[in-house]
Amino acid sequence: MIQVTKPFLPPKEEVYKLFDGIWESEWLTNDGPLVNALESSLKDYLNIQKLIFVNNGTTALQIAIKALALKGEIITTPFSFVATSSSIVWGNCKPVFVDICSNSFNLNPDLIEDAITSETSAILATHVFGYPCNIDAIEQIATKYGLKVIYDAAHCFGSLYKNKSVFSYGDISITSFHATKLFHTVEGGALFCHSSSLLNKVSYMRNFGFEGAHSFAEIGINGKNSEFHAAMGLVNLNYIDSILKKRKLLCLYYRKKLSNIAIKFQEQVADSEPNYCYMPIVLEDEEMTLNVIEALESNDIFPRRYFYPSLNTVPIFNSLQNCPVSESISSRIICLPLYHTLEMEDVDLITNIILAALKLKALSYC
Ligand SMILES: *Cc1c(COP(=O)(O)O)cnc(C)c1O
Q1: How is residue 268 annotated by DSSP?
Q2: From ligand 1's centre to the CA of 341, what distance in Å?
């Protein structure tokens, strides 16, 4: 059986060694030494000085929206994980869905201005599947209209824009270190910003708003993460370069094997470098997509319809916006299996099944 993803597991002994330290210090959580060590290693690795480690990516999004005091409408993408839009509603704001580009699958900057009203306070864009948005274009619009920008960079560990980590952009970027992400701490996430005052604010918000033992600077929540999660992150960070390298090899091999007119791949925008964290393909229509999924599943291979459905069509968001490109891509996209221990032979097997399913379909037209 081949699943769409598998979490990366480092050698146990390396994690246990750090656990020994936890038993010695008896310090389990609350800004402990391993959390601090992970934050400082991440600063070095990513070359970003202002970041905090939190308990998951969704908390990071919720803190970001509160810390920027956003109100009213937030322009966002319908082609993302549900947490992107639900965090907006959770923060008492209204998501306004703007359609995506058919090549990058990211928020289409050309459509943003038409969606701006007097109520708009921010743009919340996702760099889907580790492919950076057209950040320059989004930044320009935000500056022109005085809007804040938050990037949901949950997929983006290792992605670059203009040769810098994509986490360096926006008023705030957030990421997820969930077990299924390319770099993980089992559960976890991080928030990145530029100003010291904003960093102070989000740090208070992460810890109930505590300023001193008996005083509070902000209304906060519990966004802290534990020494155990930090230990996993510290060990995994030693493997990140080999993880990134292996993913890229697998993705390029998938693309080579699947170069076929009936299959479309995601494309990167200028000055950006993706991290190859997912392997999405887009088929010609939904019927073909379902055929390919069925062919794979009957061989015990489980891809995933991701992201499906397009969030503007999800009833909990009460949205009246049409996003034809996002709806179309959502109905035709499949993420193929991709994880560190996947072998080239597995890619051969998976791609041969897909090509056979496509050929069968083409034959039935004759
Ligand atoms: C995984 C993910 C999140 C949520 O991160 P968690 O750490 O699971 O809370 C948010 N946005 C996107 C695009 C994601 O893929």
Answers
A1: P
A2: 22
Ligand 1 pocket list (CB less than 6 A): 56-58, 80-81, 83-84, 126, 152, 154-155, 176, 178, 189
Helix (H) or strand (E) holding 190: strand 189-193
Q: Which of 100, 176, 311 to mutate to test the pocket of ligand 1 (most atoms within 8 A of CB)?
A: 176
| Domains of the chain and any CATH numbers | 12-98+105-237 (3.40.640.10), 240-365 (3.90.1150.10)
Burial code (b: 16+ CB inside 10 Å, e: under 16) for 16-43 equals eebeeebeeeebebeebebbebbbeebe
Looking at the predicted structure, is the pLDDT value of residue 142 above 90? yes
Any catalytic annotation for residue 94? Answer: no
DSSP line for 122-157: EEEEE-GGG----HHHHHHHHHHHT-EEEEE-TT-T
Q: How confident is the model at residue 22 (pLDDT cuts 50, 70, 90)?
A: very high
- From CA 191, how far away is CA 103, in angstroms rounded? 28
363, two tokens: 């034959």
Distance 219 CA to ligand 1 centre (A): 24
Q: Is 182 helix (H, G, I), strand (E, B) or coil?
A: coil
Q: Are 351 and 257 within 8 A, CB to CB? A: yes
pTM above 0.90, yes or no: yes
43 alpha carbon to ligand 1 midpoint, in Å? 21
